[in-house]
Amino acid sequence: MDQVPQVSQEPQTPQVSGTVVAASPAARRWALSAVAVGVFCVQLDSFSLNLARSRIGRDLYATEDALEWVISAYLPSTGTLMLGAGRLGHPFGRRRLLVAGLVLFGAASLVCALAPPLPVLVGARVAQGGGATLLMPVGLSLLTNVYPSPLRGRATG
């Protein structure tokens, strides 16, 4: 008689860039917290900018047409870099790119807050888009790899 091979019922340990991640509950909570903070900051930035638009125009003596660049500069950098950023998570490490995205987004936000002329603000918005681009796909990928299959839906919402 042919024997049926035994399938191991042990949970598989997730892989991140070739290294094993300790997917303990504490590690999963930290990963979820980091991704949640990043996504919250990106969304808050998008919503609050529209509310502050008129004040930015008054403070920087910008026309309505010039203010469109403040909003529009963010979108092309985010859209064009998204696919590449998701791919970079594998060779460079998801955690490392998530931290880099948070740092880039935070530094660009600081430059936005302190930007005296409008072109500096527009350039900082492009950099913010780059940081957000690292946060979104890499964060989702990190959560997918840290959480086991039964809990993944709860983590990714």
Automatic annotation (TrEMBL):
<dbReference type="GO" id="GO:0022857">
    <property type="term" value="F:transmembrane transporter activity"/>
</dbReference>
<feature type="domain" description="Major facilitator superfamily (MFS) profile">
    <location>
        <begin position="31"/>
        <end position="157"/>
    </location>
</feature>
<keyword id="KW-1003">Cell membrane</keyword>
<feature type="transmembrane region" description="Helical">
    <location>
        <begin position="30"/>
        <end position="52"/>
    </location>
</feature>
<dbReference type="InterPro" id="IPR036259">
    <property type="entry name" value="MFS_trans_sf"/>
</dbReference>
<keyword id="KW-0812">Transmembrane</keyword>
<dbReference type="InterPro" id="IPR020846">
    <property type="entry name" value="MFS_dom"/>
</dbReference>
<dbReference type="Pfam" id="PF07690">
    <property type="entry name" value="MFS_1"/>
</dbReference>
<dbReference type="InterPro" id="IPR011701">
    <property type="entry name" value="MFS"/>
</dbReference>
<keyword id="KW-0046">Antibiotic resistance</keyword>
<dbReference type="GO" id="GO:0046677">
    <property type="term" value="P:response to antibiotic"/>
</dbReference>
<keyword id="KW-0472">Membrane</keyword>
<feature type="transmembrane region" description="Helical">
    <location>
        <begin position="97"/>
        <end position="120"/>
    </location>
</feature>
<keyword id="KW-1133">Transmembrane helix</keyword>
<dbReference type="GO" id="GO:0005886">
    <property type="term" value="C:plasma membrane"/>
</dbReference>
<keyword id="KW-0813">Transport</keyword>
<protein>
    <recommendedName>
        <fullName>Major facilitator superfamily (MFS) profile domain-containing protein</fullName>
    </recommendedName>
</protein>
<feature type="transmembrane region" description="Helical">
    <location>
        <begin position="126"/>
        <end position="147"/>
    </location>
</feature>
